[in-house]
Amino acid sequence: MRVLLASGLLCAALASGCGGGDGPSGEMAAAQPAATATVDISSFKYMPVTVTVREGGRVRWTNSDAADHTATADDRSFDTQTIDKGAARMVAFTTPGTFAYHCDFHPFMKATVVVK
Prior knowledge:
Layout lengths: L1 H16 L16 E9 L2 E3 L2 E14 L8 E2 L14 E5 L4 E6 L7 E6 L1
Parallel strand pairs: 1-3, 3-7
Antiparallel strand pairs: 1-2, 3-5, 4-6, 6-7
């Protein structure tokens, strides 16, 4: 609830106080990381391979493949457990960093979550 309220206030402040997104020098303001990112699992691949979310944001993995998969951090800091065909799992990221992950069942499947 706080994240949604804060992002709404931030959007309102950016829209009204920054001249429609332009910074003081006339440059466009940098895009903020998303609160939620989605990853589709299909053809034994994570798509997109890299997603970026803000601190406190979440990533949702949806398994559109014929086989079961996981999204498991290489350092084991997160693990979706098994994501059955047609199912989805979500993980919240509270620490900034870059997190490489893989599928425990298919170790050749690799991707990255960036948290800013």
